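Troubleshooting log. The previous run stalled partway through. Resubmitting the same two chains, unchanged.
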Amino acid sequence: MKSLADVQNALLAGAVHFVLPEVVLVGTACLLFVLAVVYPRRTAAVGLALIGLTWAVALTYSVGSGETTAFWAFVEGTPYSPHLLAAIDPTGLAALIRWLALASGFIFVLLAWPEIQDHNAGEYLGCLLVMIAGSSLIGRVNDLVSLFLALEMVSIPTYVLLYLPLRGRGEQEAAVKYFLLSILSSGVLLFGFSYLYGLTGTTNLGALLAVLSAAHQHAITPMALIAILMVIAAFGFRISAVPFQFYAPDVYQGGPTGVVAQIAFIPKFIGFVALVRVLGLVIRPQDGLPFEASTTLIPLVLWVMAIVTMTFGNVLALLQDDLKRLLAYSGIAHSGYMLIGIVVACGLPGNSTPALSGVDATLFYLIAYGLMTVGAFALILYWNSQERPIRTIDNLGGLGESHPLSAALMTVFLFSLIGMPMTAGFAGKFMLFVSAFEAPVEPPMQNLYRILAVVAAVNAAIGAVYYLRIVGVMYLRDPLHPVSSARRAVLPLFAACLCAIGTVAFGVYPRLIADSTQQATPLVEVPGNAAVVARM
Amino acid sequence: MVEFGFPAFLVLSAFLFACGLTCLATKRNAIGILMGVELILNAANLNFVAAARFVPTFRLEGQVFAVLVIVLAAAEAAVALAIFLNFYNNHATVNVENATDLKG
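Second attempt completed without errors. Output:
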Protein backbone atom coordinates (compact mmCIF):
# COMPACT_ATOMS: atom_id res chain seq x y z
CA MET A 1 0.00 0.00 0.00
CA LYS A 2 1.19 3.47 -0.81
CA SER A 3 2.17 5.59 2.16
CA LEU A 4 0.78 9.07 2.80
CA ALA A 5 4.03 10.67 1.63
CA ASP A 6 3.90 8.68 -1.62
CA VAL A 7 0.37 9.84 -2.32
CA GLN A 8 1.28 13.44 -1.52
CA ASN A 9 4.31 13.35 -3.81
CA ALA A 10 2.33 11.72 -6.62
CA LEU A 11 -0.39 14.37 -6.32
CA LEU A 12 2.22 17.12 -6.30
CA ALA A 13 3.97 15.74 -9.38
CA GLY A 14 0.68 15.06 -11.15
CA ALA A 15 -0.79 18.52 -10.45
CA VAL A 16 0.71 19.97 -13.61
CA HIS A 17 -1.49 17.70 -15.73
CA PHE A 18 -4.58 19.31 -14.25
CA VAL A 19 -3.59 22.83 -15.28
CA LEU A 20 -2.28 22.31 -18.83
CA PRO A 21 -4.77 24.67 -20.57
CA GLU A 22 -3.91 27.39 -18.04
CA VAL A 23 -0.19 26.81 -18.69
CA VAL A 24 -0.86 27.23 -22.42
CA LEU A 25 -2.77 30.47 -21.79
CA VAL A 26 -0.03 31.98 -19.64
CA GLY A 27 2.62 30.81 -22.12
CA THR A 28 0.72 32.50 -24.95
CA ALA A 29 0.50 35.64 -22.83
CA CYS A 30 4.30 35.64 -22.43
CA LEU A 31 4.67 35.27 -26.21
CA LEU A 32 2.25 38.17 -26.69
CA PHE A 33 4.33 40.40 -24.40
CA VAL A 34 7.41 39.57 -26.50
CA LEU A 35 5.50 40.02 -29.76
CA ALA A 36 4.38 43.46 -28.60
CA VAL A 37 8.03 44.53 -28.62
CA VAL A 38 9.29 42.89 -31.81
CA TYR A 39 6.20 43.09 -34.06
CA PRO A 40 3.56 45.50 -32.71
CA ARG A 41 0.56 44.73 -34.94
CA ARG A 42 -3.05 44.41 -33.83
CA THR A 43 -3.96 41.58 -36.22
CA ALA A 44 -0.93 39.48 -35.24
CA ALA A 45 -1.68 39.88 -31.54
CA VAL A 46 -5.36 38.98 -31.92
CA GLY A 47 -4.43 36.00 -34.09
CA LEU A 48 -1.92 34.72 -31.55
CA ALA A 49 -4.40 35.20 -28.68
CA LEU A 50 -7.05 33.26 -30.59
CA ILE A 51 -4.55 30.47 -31.34
CA GLY A 52 -3.70 30.24 -27.63
CA LEU A 53 -7.36 30.14 -26.63
CA THR A 54 -8.17 27.53 -29.29
CA TRP A 55 -5.25 25.40 -28.13
CA ALA A 56 -6.50 25.63 -24.56
CA VAL A 57 -9.99 24.63 -25.69
CA ALA A 58 -8.58 21.67 -27.64
CA LEU A 59 -6.63 20.53 -24.58
CA THR A 60 -9.68 20.89 -22.35
CA TYR A 61 -11.75 18.92 -24.82
CA SER A 62 -9.19 16.14 -25.23
CA VAL A 63 -8.80 15.77 -21.47
CA GLY A 64 -12.54 15.47 -20.98
CA SER A 65 -13.41 13.53 -17.85
CA GLY A 66 -10.00 11.83 -17.87
CA GLU A 67 -8.81 14.35 -15.29
CA THR A 68 -11.20 13.13 -12.66
CA THR A 69 -10.27 9.51 -13.28
CA ALA A 70 -6.58 10.31 -13.04
CA PHE A 71 -7.21 12.30 -9.86
CA TRP A 72 -8.91 9.39 -8.12
CA ALA A 73 -6.28 6.95 -9.42
CA PHE A 74 -3.69 8.68 -7.21
CA VAL A 75 -5.40 7.47 -4.05
CA GLU A 76 -6.62 4.11 -5.30
CA GLY A 77 -6.10 1.43 -2.67
CA THR A 78 -5.36 3.96 0.09
CA PRO A 79 -7.71 5.27 2.78
CA TYR A 80 -6.90 8.92 2.03
CA SER A 81 -9.27 11.44 0.51
CA PRO A 82 -7.62 13.35 -2.36
CA HIS A 83 -9.69 16.43 -1.49
CA LEU A 84 -7.65 16.74 1.69
CA LEU A 85 -4.24 16.38 0.07
CA ALA A 86 -4.17 17.82 -3.44
CA ALA A 87 -3.49 21.46 -4.25
CA ILE A 88 -5.35 21.18 -7.56
CA ASP A 89 -8.68 19.40 -7.55
CA PRO A 90 -10.20 18.78 -11.02
CA THR A 91 -13.50 17.37 -9.74
CA GLY A 92 -16.85 19.08 -9.26
CA LEU A 93 -16.96 22.68 -10.43
CA ALA A 94 -13.59 22.61 -12.15
CA ALA A 95 -14.53 21.56 -15.68
CA LEU A 96 -17.56 23.84 -15.94
CA ILE A 97 -15.60 26.85 -14.65
CA ARG A 98 -12.82 26.18 -17.16
CA TRP A 99 -15.27 26.04 -20.10
CA LEU A 100 -16.91 29.25 -18.92
CA ALA A 101 -13.58 31.03 -18.56
CA LEU A 102 -12.44 29.97 -22.03
CA ALA A 103 -15.77 30.92 -23.63
CA SER A 104 -15.66 34.34 -21.99
CA GLY A 105 -12.06 34.64 -23.24
CA PHE A 106 -13.21 34.40 -26.87
CA ILE A 107 -15.96 36.97 -26.31
CA PHE A 108 -13.56 39.40 -24.61
CA VAL A 109 -10.99 39.10 -27.43
CA LEU A 110 -13.77 40.06 -29.87
CA LEU A 111 -14.71 43.01 -27.64
CA ALA A 112 -11.08 44.11 -27.37
CA TRP A 113 -10.72 44.73 -31.12
CA PRO A 114 -12.08 48.33 -31.36
CA GLU A 115 -10.17 49.48 -28.28
CA ILE A 116 -6.69 48.25 -29.02
CA GLN A 117 -4.16 49.81 -31.35
CA ASP A 118 -0.98 48.38 -32.76
CA HIS A 119 1.14 49.76 -29.94
CA ASN A 120 -0.79 48.22 -27.05
CA ALA A 121 -2.45 45.14 -28.58
CA GLY A 122 0.13 42.66 -27.29
CA GLU A 123 0.05 43.87 -23.69
CA TYR A 124 -3.75 44.15 -23.66
CA LEU A 125 -4.35 40.62 -24.94
CA GLY A 126 -1.54 39.17 -22.83
CA CYS A 127 -3.12 40.59 -19.69
CA LEU A 128 -6.51 39.32 -20.84
CA LEU A 129 -5.19 35.76 -21.28
CA VAL A 130 -3.60 35.79 -17.82
CA MET A 131 -6.98 36.87 -16.42
CA ILE A 132 -8.71 34.03 -18.23
CA ALA A 133 -6.15 31.54 -16.92
CA GLY A 134 -6.65 32.86 -13.37
CA SER A 135 -10.42 32.63 -13.53
CA SER A 136 -10.20 29.13 -14.96
CA LEU A 137 -7.90 28.12 -12.09
CA ILE A 138 -10.37 29.35 -9.46
CA GLY A 139 -12.60 26.37 -10.17
CA ARG A 140 -9.88 23.85 -9.35
CA VAL A 141 -7.63 25.31 -6.68
CA ASN A 142 -7.81 23.47 -3.40
CA ASP A 143 -5.17 25.34 -1.45
CA LEU A 144 -5.09 28.82 0.08
CA VAL A 145 -1.78 29.58 -1.67
CA SER A 146 -3.03 28.68 -5.13
CA LEU A 147 -6.40 30.31 -4.45
CA PHE A 148 -4.71 33.59 -3.58
CA LEU A 149 -2.42 33.26 -6.60
CA ALA A 150 -5.38 32.66 -8.92
CA LEU A 151 -7.22 35.69 -7.50
CA GLU A 152 -4.17 37.90 -8.05
CA MET A 153 -3.76 36.52 -11.57
CA VAL A 154 -7.09 38.18 -12.23
CA SER A 155 -6.58 41.40 -10.22
CA ILE A 156 -3.15 42.55 -11.35
CA PRO A 157 -3.85 42.32 -15.11
CA THR A 158 -7.10 44.21 -14.48
CA TYR A 159 -5.18 47.19 -13.08
CA VAL A 160 -3.00 47.27 -16.18
CA LEU A 161 -5.96 46.83 -18.55
CA LEU A 162 -7.88 49.69 -16.95
CA TYR A 163 -5.35 52.31 -17.95
CA LEU A 164 -3.79 50.68 -21.01
CA PRO A 165 -6.23 51.45 -23.87
CA LEU A 166 -7.00 55.12 -23.23
CA ARG A 167 -5.22 57.55 -20.98
CA GLY A 168 -7.70 60.34 -20.39
CA ARG A 169 -8.58 61.72 -16.98
CA GLY A 170 -11.57 59.44 -16.52
CA GLU A 171 -9.62 56.26 -17.24
CA GLN A 172 -6.85 57.24 -14.85
CA GLU A 173 -9.26 58.01 -12.08
CA ALA A 174 -11.02 54.69 -12.63
CA ALA A 175 -7.69 52.85 -12.56
CA VAL A 176 -6.54 54.55 -9.34
CA LYS A 177 -9.84 53.93 -7.56
CA TYR A 178 -10.08 50.31 -8.65
CA PHE A 179 -6.48 49.64 -7.76
CA LEU A 180 -6.60 51.07 -4.24
CA LEU A 181 -9.80 49.27 -3.28
CA SER A 182 -8.87 46.00 -4.94
CA ILE A 183 -5.49 45.83 -3.24
CA LEU A 184 -7.16 46.62 0.08
CA SER A 185 -9.49 43.68 -0.44
CA SER A 186 -6.51 41.45 -1.28
CA GLY A 187 -4.83 42.53 1.96
CA VAL A 188 -7.91 41.85 4.08
CA LEU A 189 -8.37 38.48 2.39
CA LEU A 190 -4.77 37.56 3.07
CA PHE A 191 -5.08 38.54 6.72
CA GLY A 192 -8.14 36.30 7.02
CA PHE A 193 -6.22 33.48 5.33
CA SER A 194 -3.32 33.91 7.76
CA TYR A 195 -5.71 33.36 10.69
CA LEU A 196 -7.16 30.29 9.01
CA TYR A 197 -3.65 28.89 8.55
CA GLY A 198 -2.72 29.78 12.12
CA LEU A 199 -5.79 27.96 13.42
CA THR A 200 -5.40 24.78 11.41
CA GLY A 201 -1.77 24.48 10.37
CA THR A 202 -2.59 23.59 6.80
CA THR A 203 -3.24 25.56 3.66
CA ASN A 204 -5.09 22.74 1.91
CA LEU A 205 -8.65 23.96 1.63
CA GLY A 206 -10.33 20.58 2.11
CA ALA A 207 -8.17 19.66 5.11
CA LEU A 208 -8.49 23.16 6.57
CA LEU A 209 -12.29 23.05 6.45
CA ALA A 210 -12.37 19.52 7.83
CA VAL A 211 -10.10 20.45 10.74
CA LEU A 212 -12.23 23.53 11.53
CA SER A 213 -15.46 21.49 11.41
CA ALA A 214 -14.02 18.81 13.66
CA ALA A 215 -12.74 21.42 16.11
CA HIS A 216 -16.11 23.14 16.30
CA GLN A 217 -17.77 20.01 17.58
CA HIS A 218 -16.21 20.80 20.93
CA ALA A 219 -15.32 24.46 21.24
CA ILE A 220 -15.92 27.82 19.65
CA THR A 221 -13.06 29.84 18.23
CA PRO A 222 -13.86 33.51 17.70
CA MET A 223 -10.78 33.82 15.52
CA ALA A 224 -12.30 31.54 12.89
CA LEU A 225 -15.31 33.84 12.84
CA ILE A 226 -13.15 36.95 12.44
CA ALA A 227 -11.26 35.20 9.66
CA ILE A 228 -14.35 34.17 7.72
CA LEU A 229 -15.92 37.63 8.08
CA MET A 230 -12.73 39.14 6.64
CA VAL A 231 -12.86 36.66 3.77
CA ILE A 232 -16.53 37.50 3.10
CA ALA A 233 -15.70 41.22 3.15
CA ALA A 234 -12.87 40.71 0.66
CA PHE A 235 -15.03 38.67 -1.71
CA GLY A 236 -17.81 41.19 -1.18
CA PHE A 237 -15.55 43.68 -2.91
CA ARG A 238 -15.04 41.36 -5.90
CA ILE A 239 -18.76 40.75 -6.32
CA SER A 240 -19.49 44.45 -5.56
CA ALA A 241 -21.93 43.72 -2.76
CA VAL A 242 -23.02 46.55 -0.46
CA PRO A 243 -21.13 47.96 1.54
CA PHE A 244 -18.15 47.24 -0.71
CA GLN A 245 -19.75 48.46 -3.93
CA PHE A 246 -18.83 52.16 -3.91
CA TYR A 247 -16.00 51.86 -6.44
CA ALA A 248 -18.16 50.18 -9.09
CA PRO A 249 -20.11 53.12 -10.59
CA ASP A 250 -17.01 55.32 -10.98
CA VAL A 251 -14.91 52.52 -12.45
CA TYR A 252 -17.62 51.47 -14.91
CA GLN A 253 -18.23 55.06 -16.00
CA GLY A 254 -14.57 55.97 -16.41
CA GLY A 255 -13.03 52.75 -17.65
CA PRO A 256 -12.68 51.70 -21.30
CA THR A 257 -15.88 49.87 -22.29
CA GLY A 258 -14.25 46.58 -23.33
CA VAL A 259 -12.40 46.36 -20.00
CA VAL A 260 -15.52 47.35 -18.07
CA ALA A 261 -17.28 44.39 -19.68
CA GLN A 262 -14.53 42.18 -18.24
CA ILE A 263 -14.76 43.83 -14.82
CA ALA A 264 -18.52 43.37 -14.86
CA PHE A 265 -18.19 39.63 -15.29
CA ILE A 266 -14.85 38.11 -14.28
CA PRO A 267 -14.41 39.45 -10.71
CA LYS A 268 -18.01 38.54 -9.86
CA PHE A 269 -17.56 35.12 -11.36
CA ILE A 270 -14.36 34.35 -9.43
CA GLY A 271 -15.67 36.03 -6.27
CA PHE A 272 -18.72 33.78 -6.12
CA VAL A 273 -16.81 30.60 -6.97
CA ALA A 274 -14.10 31.35 -4.41
CA LEU A 275 -16.71 32.23 -1.77
CA VAL A 276 -18.49 28.93 -2.38
CA ARG A 277 -15.24 27.04 -2.00
CA VAL A 278 -14.03 28.79 1.14
CA LEU A 279 -17.40 28.46 2.86
CA GLY A 280 -17.19 24.70 2.30
CA LEU A 281 -20.30 24.53 0.14
CA VAL A 282 -18.74 22.37 -2.57
CA ILE A 283 -16.49 20.11 -0.55
CA ARG A 284 -18.41 19.75 2.62
CA PRO A 285 -16.78 18.20 5.68
CA GLN A 286 -18.69 15.32 7.23
CA ASP A 287 -18.98 17.05 10.60
CA GLY A 288 -20.94 19.92 9.09
CA LEU A 289 -19.95 23.29 7.72
CA PRO A 290 -16.54 24.56 8.82
CA PHE A 291 -17.44 27.68 10.77
CA GLU A 292 -19.42 27.30 13.96
CA ALA A 293 -21.76 30.02 12.83
CA SER A 294 -22.04 28.53 9.33
CA THR A 295 -25.71 27.71 9.55
CA THR A 296 -26.78 30.69 11.64
CA LEU A 297 -24.70 33.85 11.63
CA ILE A 298 -23.11 33.54 8.19
CA PRO A 299 -26.39 32.99 6.30
CA LEU A 300 -27.82 35.90 8.27
CA VAL A 301 -24.93 38.21 7.34
CA LEU A 302 -25.26 37.17 3.71
CA TRP A 303 -29.06 37.50 3.92
CA VAL A 304 -28.75 41.13 5.01
CA MET A 305 -26.07 41.72 2.39
CA ALA A 306 -28.27 40.24 -0.35
CA ILE A 307 -31.32 42.33 0.51
CA VAL A 308 -29.41 45.58 0.94
CA THR A 309 -27.35 44.97 -2.19
CA MET A 310 -30.28 44.31 -4.51
CA THR A 311 -32.38 47.17 -3.16
CA PHE A 312 -29.52 49.67 -3.17
CA GLY A 313 -28.51 48.72 -6.72
CA ASN A 314 -32.01 48.92 -8.13
CA VAL A 315 -33.03 52.15 -6.41
CA LEU A 316 -29.88 54.02 -7.38
CA ALA A 317 -30.04 52.67 -10.94
CA LEU A 318 -33.40 54.47 -11.26
CA LEU A 319 -31.61 57.82 -10.83
CA GLN A 320 -28.86 57.31 -13.41
CA ASP A 321 -28.55 58.97 -16.78
CA ASP A 322 -25.11 57.67 -17.68
CA LEU A 323 -25.51 54.32 -19.42
CA LYS A 324 -22.42 52.58 -18.03
CA ARG A 325 -23.16 53.91 -14.54
CA LEU A 326 -26.64 52.49 -14.82
CA LEU A 327 -25.20 49.11 -15.79
CA ALA A 328 -22.88 49.33 -12.76
CA TYR A 329 -25.83 49.73 -10.39
CA SER A 330 -27.69 47.01 -12.28
CA GLY A 331 -24.65 44.75 -11.75
CA ILE A 332 -24.75 45.50 -8.03
CA ALA A 333 -28.43 44.57 -7.95
CA HIS A 334 -27.76 41.30 -9.77
CA SER A 335 -25.02 40.43 -7.26
CA GLY A 336 -27.72 40.73 -4.64
CA TYR A 337 -29.86 38.19 -6.50
CA MET A 338 -26.91 35.81 -6.85
CA LEU A 339 -26.19 36.01 -3.11
CA ILE A 340 -29.59 34.36 -2.54
CA GLY A 341 -28.18 31.04 -3.75
CA ILE A 342 -25.24 31.27 -1.35
CA VAL A 343 -27.54 32.10 1.57
CA VAL A 344 -29.67 29.07 0.76
CA ALA A 345 -26.67 26.75 0.42
CA CYS A 346 -25.22 27.96 3.74
CA GLY A 347 -28.42 27.42 5.63
CA LEU A 348 -29.13 23.87 4.46
CA PRO A 349 -28.90 21.24 7.15
CA GLY A 350 -26.14 18.69 6.57
CA ASN A 351 -28.13 15.71 5.34
CA SER A 352 -30.59 17.42 3.00
CA THR A 353 -30.38 17.18 -0.77
CA PRO A 354 -33.00 19.50 -2.24
CA ALA A 355 -33.59 19.69 -5.98
CA LEU A 356 -31.89 23.07 -6.01
CA SER A 357 -28.94 23.34 -3.67
CA GLY A 358 -28.58 27.09 -4.11
CA VAL A 359 -25.05 26.94 -5.46
CA ASP A 360 -26.25 25.60 -8.80
CA ALA A 361 -28.87 28.35 -9.04
CA THR A 362 -26.17 30.95 -8.38
CA LEU A 363 -23.93 29.41 -11.03
CA PHE A 364 -26.76 29.41 -13.54
CA TYR A 365 -27.54 33.03 -12.79
CA LEU A 366 -23.85 33.93 -13.10
CA ILE A 367 -23.82 32.50 -16.62
CA ALA A 368 -27.06 34.28 -17.53
CA TYR A 369 -25.80 37.54 -16.01
CA GLY A 370 -22.52 37.24 -17.90
CA LEU A 371 -24.29 36.72 -21.23
CA MET A 372 -26.70 39.63 -20.89
CA THR A 373 -24.36 42.18 -19.30
CA VAL A 374 -21.37 41.47 -21.54
CA GLY A 375 -23.75 41.54 -24.51
CA ALA A 376 -25.04 44.97 -23.49
CA PHE A 377 -21.48 46.32 -23.14
CA ALA A 378 -20.61 44.82 -26.54
CA LEU A 379 -23.41 46.86 -28.13
CA ILE A 380 -22.31 50.06 -26.37
CA LEU A 381 -18.86 49.39 -27.81
CA TYR A 382 -20.37 48.80 -31.25
CA TRP A 383 -22.47 52.00 -31.28
CA ASN A 384 -19.83 54.24 -29.77
CA SER A 385 -17.93 56.37 -32.28
CA GLN A 386 -15.97 59.62 -32.32
CA GLU A 387 -18.77 61.76 -33.76
CA ARG A 388 -21.52 59.98 -31.89
CA PRO A 389 -20.29 58.94 -28.45
CA ILE A 390 -22.60 56.81 -26.34
CA ARG A 391 -22.46 58.24 -22.85
CA THR A 392 -25.96 58.84 -21.57
CA ILE A 393 -29.20 57.02 -22.19
CA ASP A 394 -30.40 59.90 -24.38
CA ASN A 395 -27.57 59.13 -26.83
CA LEU A 396 -29.41 55.93 -27.68
CA GLY A 397 -32.34 57.86 -29.19
CA GLY A 398 -33.43 56.66 -32.62
CA LEU A 399 -31.21 53.58 -32.69
CA GLY A 400 -34.27 51.41 -33.25
CA GLU A 401 -34.60 53.00 -36.70
CA SER A 402 -30.99 53.48 -37.67
CA HIS A 403 -29.63 50.15 -36.33
CA PRO A 404 -32.58 47.74 -36.20
CA LEU A 405 -30.51 44.58 -35.64
CA SER A 406 -28.33 45.84 -32.81
CA ALA A 407 -31.28 47.61 -31.16
CA ALA A 408 -33.20 44.33 -31.24
CA LEU A 409 -30.24 42.55 -29.62
CA MET A 410 -30.08 45.22 -26.91
CA THR A 411 -33.79 44.70 -26.30
CA VAL A 412 -33.16 40.97 -25.83
CA PHE A 413 -30.46 41.69 -23.23
CA LEU A 414 -32.59 44.25 -21.41
CA PHE A 415 -35.59 41.92 -21.33
CA SER A 416 -33.34 39.22 -19.95
CA LEU A 417 -32.01 41.62 -17.29
CA ILE A 418 -35.61 42.40 -16.34
CA GLY A 419 -36.32 38.68 -16.18
CA MET A 420 -38.91 38.32 -18.93
CA PRO A 421 -39.92 34.71 -19.65
CA MET A 422 -38.08 32.94 -22.49
CA THR A 423 -34.78 34.55 -21.55
CA ALA A 424 -31.90 33.22 -19.47
CA GLY A 425 -32.46 35.99 -16.92
CA PHE A 426 -35.93 34.62 -16.20
CA ALA A 427 -34.74 31.02 -15.85
CA GLY A 428 -31.96 32.13 -13.48
CA LYS A 429 -34.24 34.28 -11.31
CA PHE A 430 -36.78 31.48 -11.24
CA MET A 431 -34.20 28.97 -10.00
CA LEU A 432 -32.91 31.38 -7.34
CA PHE A 433 -36.37 32.28 -6.06
CA VAL A 434 -37.48 28.66 -5.97
CA SER A 435 -34.33 27.56 -4.17
CA ALA A 436 -35.01 30.20 -1.49
CA PHE A 437 -38.73 29.46 -1.28
CA GLU A 438 -38.45 25.69 -1.11
CA ALA A 439 -35.33 25.43 1.07
CA PRO A 440 -35.81 22.57 3.58
CA VAL A 441 -34.98 24.53 6.74
CA GLU A 442 -36.56 25.06 10.15
CA PRO A 443 -39.53 27.49 10.43
CA PRO A 444 -37.80 30.64 11.77
CA MET A 445 -35.20 30.48 9.01
CA GLN A 446 -37.81 29.41 6.47
CA ASN A 447 -39.73 32.64 6.98
CA LEU A 448 -36.54 34.62 6.47
CA TYR A 449 -35.92 32.78 3.21
CA ARG A 450 -39.44 33.46 2.00
CA ILE A 451 -39.03 37.15 2.83
CA LEU A 452 -35.81 37.06 0.81
CA ALA A 453 -37.60 35.59 -2.21
CA VAL A 454 -40.40 38.18 -1.97
CA VAL A 455 -37.97 41.12 -1.64
CA ALA A 456 -36.09 39.81 -4.67
CA ALA A 457 -39.32 39.63 -6.68
CA VAL A 458 -40.23 43.21 -5.73
CA ASN A 459 -36.73 44.29 -6.73
CA ALA A 460 -37.05 42.60 -10.10
CA ALA A 461 -40.15 44.73 -10.66
CA ILE A 462 -38.28 47.94 -9.72
CA GLY A 463 -35.52 46.91 -12.12
CA ALA A 464 -37.99 46.71 -14.99
CA VAL A 465 -38.54 50.49 -14.79
CA TYR A 466 -35.03 51.56 -15.72
CA TYR A 467 -34.43 48.80 -18.26
CA LEU A 468 -37.69 49.60 -20.05
CA ARG A 469 -36.72 53.27 -20.06
CA ILE A 470 -33.70 52.36 -22.21
CA VAL A 471 -35.89 50.34 -24.58
CA GLY A 472 -38.30 53.27 -24.80
CA VAL A 473 -35.52 55.74 -25.67
CA MET A 474 -34.15 53.44 -28.35
CA TYR A 475 -37.42 53.02 -30.16
CA LEU A 476 -39.54 56.10 -29.41
CA ARG A 477 -37.10 59.04 -29.15
CA ASP A 478 -35.61 60.94 -32.09
CA PRO A 479 -31.82 60.77 -32.37
CA LEU A 480 -29.80 63.58 -30.77
CA HIS A 481 -27.12 63.48 -33.45
CA PRO A 482 -27.37 62.64 -37.13
CA VAL A 483 -26.54 59.03 -37.87
CA SER A 484 -22.85 58.68 -38.65
CA SER A 485 -21.77 56.77 -41.68
CA ALA A 486 -18.38 55.85 -40.20
CA ARG A 487 -17.39 52.22 -40.54
CA ARG A 488 -17.88 50.30 -37.36
CA ALA A 489 -16.00 47.31 -36.07
CA VAL A 490 -18.30 44.34 -36.56
CA LEU A 491 -16.57 42.05 -34.07
CA PRO A 492 -18.42 43.47 -31.00
CA LEU A 493 -21.69 43.03 -32.90
CA PHE A 494 -20.74 39.41 -33.59
CA ALA A 495 -19.96 38.93 -29.87
CA ALA A 496 -23.33 40.47 -29.00
CA CYS A 497 -25.05 38.06 -31.40
CA LEU A 498 -23.37 35.10 -29.68
CA CYS A 499 -24.45 36.41 -26.26
CA ALA A 500 -28.01 36.94 -27.50
CA ILE A 501 -28.19 33.42 -28.92
CA GLY A 502 -27.02 32.09 -25.55
CA THR A 503 -29.49 34.27 -23.66
CA VAL A 504 -32.44 33.05 -25.68
CA ALA A 505 -31.30 29.41 -25.90
CA PHE A 506 -30.74 29.08 -22.15
CA GLY A 507 -34.03 30.89 -21.55
CA VAL A 508 -36.11 28.67 -23.82
CA TYR A 509 -34.34 25.48 -22.80
CA PRO A 510 -32.63 26.03 -19.42
CA ARG A 511 -31.65 22.38 -19.08
CA LEU A 512 -28.77 23.03 -21.50
CA ILE A 513 -26.91 24.70 -18.64
CA ALA A 514 -28.95 23.74 -15.58
CA ASP A 515 -27.93 20.10 -16.01
CA SER A 516 -24.24 20.91 -16.04
CA THR A 517 -24.48 23.33 -13.11
CA GLN A 518 -26.25 20.66 -11.11
CA GLN A 519 -23.70 18.00 -12.01
CA ALA A 520 -20.93 20.43 -11.12
CA THR A 521 -22.16 21.05 -7.60
CA PRO A 522 -22.56 17.75 -5.82
CA LEU A 523 -21.87 18.00 -2.15
CA VAL A 524 -18.69 15.98 -1.80
CA GLU A 525 -18.52 14.88 1.80
CA VAL A 526 -15.03 14.48 3.15
CA PRO A 527 -14.31 12.63 6.39
CA GLY A 528 -13.53 14.99 9.24
CA ASN A 529 -11.33 13.00 11.56
CA ALA A 530 -9.26 11.46 8.80
CA ALA A 531 -8.18 14.98 7.96
CA VAL A 532 -6.73 15.55 11.35
CA VAL A 533 -4.88 12.24 11.13
CA ALA A 534 -3.72 12.82 7.58
CA ARG A 535 -2.15 16.11 8.50
CA MET A 536 0.08 14.74 11.24
CA MET B 1 17.81 37.14 25.07
CA VAL B 2 14.10 37.35 25.70
CA GLU B 3 12.01 34.77 23.87
CA PHE B 4 8.59 36.00 22.78
CA GLY B 5 5.73 33.55 22.32
CA PHE B 6 3.14 33.20 19.55
CA PRO B 7 0.58 35.56 21.16
CA ALA B 8 3.05 38.45 21.08
CA PHE B 9 3.32 38.06 17.31
CA LEU B 10 -0.45 37.86 16.93
CA VAL B 11 -0.84 41.12 18.85
CA LEU B 12 1.88 42.76 16.78
CA SER B 13 0.29 41.67 13.52
CA ALA B 14 -3.15 42.84 14.64
CA PHE B 15 -1.57 46.20 15.53
CA LEU B 16 0.10 46.42 12.11
CA PHE B 17 -3.22 45.56 10.44
CA ALA B 18 -4.98 48.33 12.38
CA CYS B 19 -2.20 50.78 11.46
CA GLY B 20 -2.59 49.84 7.81
CA LEU B 21 -6.35 50.35 7.87
CA THR B 22 -5.97 53.72 9.63
CA CYS B 23 -3.43 54.74 7.04
CA LEU B 24 -5.84 53.81 4.23
CA ALA B 25 -8.68 55.71 5.85
CA THR B 26 -6.82 58.93 6.64
CA LYS B 27 -4.08 59.37 4.01
CA ARG B 28 -4.91 61.45 0.97
CA ASN B 29 -1.65 60.81 -0.82
CA ALA B 30 -1.77 57.77 -3.14
CA ILE B 31 1.76 56.70 -2.16
CA GLY B 32 0.76 56.94 1.51
CA ILE B 33 -2.24 54.70 0.85
CA LEU B 34 0.06 52.20 -0.87
CA MET B 35 2.20 52.16 2.27
CA GLY B 36 -0.88 51.36 4.35
CA VAL B 37 -1.64 48.43 2.05
CA GLU B 38 1.92 47.15 2.43
CA LEU B 39 1.46 47.26 6.21
CA ILE B 40 -1.65 45.07 5.91
CA LEU B 41 0.10 42.58 3.64
CA ASN B 42 3.06 42.37 5.99
CA ALA B 43 0.81 41.94 9.03
CA ALA B 44 -0.56 38.84 7.28
CA ASN B 45 2.98 37.71 6.44
CA LEU B 46 3.96 38.00 10.09
CA ASN B 47 1.04 35.74 11.04
CA PHE B 48 2.07 33.14 8.49
CA VAL B 49 5.71 33.07 9.51
CA ALA B 50 5.01 33.15 13.25
CA ALA B 51 2.51 30.29 12.98
CA ALA B 52 4.99 28.21 10.99
CA ARG B 53 7.72 28.96 13.54
CA PHE B 54 5.90 28.48 16.84
CA VAL B 55 3.60 25.54 16.22
CA PRO B 56 5.88 22.53 15.81
CA THR B 57 3.41 20.33 13.93
CA PHE B 58 2.93 22.90 11.20
CA ARG B 59 4.73 22.38 7.95
CA LEU B 60 6.52 24.90 5.79
CA GLU B 61 3.43 26.21 3.97
CA GLY B 62 3.32 29.40 6.04
CA GLN B 63 6.80 30.44 5.03
CA VAL B 64 6.16 29.57 1.40
CA PHE B 65 3.00 31.68 1.50
CA ALA B 66 4.95 34.60 2.98
CA VAL B 67 7.56 34.44 0.20
CA LEU B 68 4.79 34.36 -2.41
CA VAL B 69 3.11 37.39 -0.83
CA ILE B 70 6.38 39.34 -0.86
CA VAL B 71 6.73 38.68 -4.60
CA LEU B 72 3.10 39.67 -5.17
CA ALA B 73 3.49 42.86 -3.18
CA ALA B 74 6.46 43.78 -5.38
CA ALA B 75 4.41 43.12 -8.53
CA GLU B 76 1.55 45.19 -7.19
CA ALA B 77 3.84 48.07 -6.24
CA ALA B 78 5.26 48.10 -9.78
CA VAL B 79 1.80 48.37 -11.34
CA ALA B 80 0.75 50.90 -8.69
CA LEU B 81 3.64 53.24 -9.39
CA ALA B 82 2.92 53.07 -13.13
CA ILE B 83 -0.72 53.99 -12.49
CA PHE B 84 0.19 56.81 -10.10
CA LEU B 85 2.81 58.23 -12.46
CA ASN B 86 0.19 58.30 -15.19
CA PHE B 87 -2.23 60.04 -12.84
CA TYR B 88 0.48 62.53 -11.88
CA ASN B 89 1.13 63.38 -15.53
CA ASN B 90 -2.46 64.54 -15.97
CA HIS B 91 -3.29 65.99 -12.56
CA ALA B 92 0.19 67.15 -11.43
CA THR B 93 -0.55 65.63 -8.01
CA VAL B 94 -0.99 62.19 -6.45
CA ASN B 95 -3.61 63.46 -4.01
CA VAL B 96 -6.60 61.16 -4.44
CA GLU B 97 -9.01 63.95 -3.42
CA ASN B 98 -8.35 65.45 -6.82
CA ALA B 99 -9.86 62.36 -8.43
CA THR B 100 -13.34 63.78 -8.70
CA ASP B 101 -14.10 63.76 -12.40
CA LEU B 102 -16.48 60.82 -12.10
CA LYS B 103 -19.63 61.57 -10.16
CA GLY B 104 -23.27 60.74 -10.19
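Takeaways: The mean pLDDT of chain B is 86. Chain B touches chain A through 47 residues (CB under 8 Å).
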